[in-house]
Structures are given as C-alpha cells and as structure tokens.
C-alpha cells in the first residue's frame, strides 16, 4: 500500500508515520509546516524520520528520507487543489490518513478563517482526490469537541452532536458530514476518529501536558481553568497509534462489516481524569509543586470528556493500556531530553 499521511510533521502524524514505516509500509508524508506553534519542533520530528530541514524549504518538492527508504515527504497545503491532485496521480495513493488540520479550540476564536480554509476547503480537496483517484479508504481525524454541550457521559458515537461550542468543533462535525456524503455518493470507505486529549513525547506546545510541564520546570505559575473543576479523557499517543494502524491495515475482527462504507469511532483512554489529579501527577514526576492560578471557564471549552470506545474495541480489538503515571513520565523524560534540562 501507498499510504498518504497528512499532518506528518505534527504530533500524531509523526508517531503514525514512524509506526507505519516500522511496519514496512510505503508512506508519503504531507505537511505545510505552518507557524501555529514552533516550527523547530515540527522539523525536529521530521528529522527523526530522516527528512532533513534543508531539503523541505520549498513547497511542492518531494524529499526523500535518509533513514527510511520507503518514506517520502512533501511540503504542501491541502488548499492547493492542483498540486494535491498531482501528488495523488504521481504516487498512486491507495490509503489516506488525513490528520492535517488547524487545531486548537481557543485559537479558533481569534482566527476563524484559518479553520474554514484548512479544515473545510482542505478536507473537501482530500475527498475529491480520493474520489478521482480510486483511493480505497480515507481515515480522518475528527475530535471529541464535536460533543459540545452534550451532558451525557461517557460520550458515545450514537449521541447527538448538534451543539458544538467552537468553530473548531463545528469544522470537525462538518468533516463527518462531508465524509458521509462522499461515501454514499461515490462508494469509497471513510472512517472518522474522534480523538480525546492526546498527550505524549513530541506533543504540541499549546496543550495542557506541555504547558504545565514547561511552567513547573521554569517555576512559573500555571493557569487552571474553571477553578480546576474539569475532567479529561487523557490518552497516551501510543494507544492512539495502536488504534489507528489496524484500521489502515484492515485488521478488523469478524464482527466488523467491511461493506459498511461510512464509520465513526471514539478513540480515547475510556477513563475520565480530574484535571487537578493530572496536575498532581506531573508535580510528583517532576518533583516540584506547581503554583496554581485559578481562572474561570474559557469560551469554547467543555467541563468534561469521557470516551466510550466499545465500538472500536469490538471492531478492531482496541485496548488502550497506558496508565497516566507512565504516560506522564514518558513525556517529562522526553521534554527534559529535548530541551536539555
């Protein structure tokens, strides 16, 4: 298989690309390497895959890995329909995992146009390329944020998701609807994955794990929203990757019907952890007590997330098994090594 991974310089995209390459697949990585957060971190992830920074400066040129002979990388935006179409034509892509998107709930309050361009227009271009180039299966990132004002927990895929409270969430709900339409009209498989608060080594600097660790190590205060009355289904990145790969490789169980073209799954740890407990575990791991500044709820945020992953467990034998204590230690160890602390 020739697998296209969009967002390959991103947190989950990097880990997924590495796992697929280690499993012996041909992988084409795509990323626009925008400056939403530190591009040095994005380039450093690519270097782990054998793509050197000096050869990815130009948009549209394919770079070859000096570690993985089966890995190619192209710097490209999903909004560039012509070059995206040419890539599908040239590389004869059979499977797509679309992780590229403008992320972040809070950023969407300030830069709404970015979300429409990347998450709506860009996703439409991916769907069109899949349609026109006989792609067998499109797997794409949705988000737990689509549950919005839903009060019933744990969140189940069958729950109504008609009340998103951020443009980011609305864009992800739109992706699910668009994928359903294309599966119905054009007969190719689409699988949406609603991610729940992913953390781990090489994580995003705008997420809680990274922000808390950085602040505590620098002995700065941390902002704790809703006065700490928040819960999240924190999911270690390896558990996420171990859920995605069998879907891309079609390693489903006998209960799954491959003739069903449109599918949605929650992918999380299936446990809700109190934010203050999460912070306490970071404090224990680092050995420094955090100075907490209690703040009110932020616009677009939700009080609690909790994934029901029974569908993914049934169809793909999904078993998240990384305890918070272990996952936090893995991240802190990586952070200290990466920043020479």
TrEMBL record:
Keywords: NAD. Residues 3-253 form the NAD-dependent epimerase/dehydratase domain. The keyword NAD applies. Transmembrane segments: none annotated. The keyword NAD applies. It comes from the Bacteria. PANTHER family: EPIMERASE-RELATED. This is UDP-glucuronate 4-epimerase.
């Amino acid at each position: 298989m020739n697998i296209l991974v969009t967002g390959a310089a991103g947190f989950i995209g990097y880990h997924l690309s590495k796992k697929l390459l280690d499993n012996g697949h041909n992988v084409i990585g795509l990323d626009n390497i925008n400056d939403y957060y530190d591009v040095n971190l994005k380039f450093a992830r690519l270097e782990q895959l054998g793509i050197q920074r000096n050869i990815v400066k130009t948009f549209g040129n394919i770079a070859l890995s000096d570690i993985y002979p089966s890995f190619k990388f192209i710097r490209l935006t999903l909004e560039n329909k012509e070059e995206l179409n040419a890539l599908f034509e040239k590389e004869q892509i059979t499977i797509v995992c679309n992780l590229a998107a403008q992320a972040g709930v809070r950023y969407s309050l300030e830069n709404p146009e970015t979300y429409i361009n990347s998450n709506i227009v860009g996703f439409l271009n991916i769907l069109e390329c899949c349609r026109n180039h006989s792609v067998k299966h499109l797997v794409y990132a949705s988000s737990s944020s689509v549950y919005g004002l839903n009060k019933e927990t744990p969140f189940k895929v069958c729950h109504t998701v008609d009340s998103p409270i951020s443009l980011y969430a609305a864009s992800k709900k739109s992706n699910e609807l668009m994928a359903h339409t294309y599966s119905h009209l054009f007969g190719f498989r689409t699988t949406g994955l609603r991610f729940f608060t992913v953390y781990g080594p090489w994580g995003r600097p705008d997420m809680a794990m990274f922000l808390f660790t950085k602040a505590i190590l620098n002995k700065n205060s941390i902002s704790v929203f809703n006065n700490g009355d928040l819960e999240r289904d924190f999911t270690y990145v390896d558990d996420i990757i171990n859920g995605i790969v069998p879907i891309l490789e079609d390693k489903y169980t006998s209960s799954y019907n491959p003739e069903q073209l449109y599918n949605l799954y929650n992918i999380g740890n299936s446990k809700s952890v109190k934010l203050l407990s999460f912070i306490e575990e970071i404090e224990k791991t680092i050995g420094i007590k955090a100075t907490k500044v209690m703040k009110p709820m932020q616009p677009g945020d939700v009080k609690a997330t909790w994934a029901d992953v029974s569908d993914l467990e049934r169809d793909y034998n999904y078993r998240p098994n990384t305890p918070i204590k272990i996952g936090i230690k893995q991240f802190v160890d990586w952070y200290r090594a990466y920043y020479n602390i």
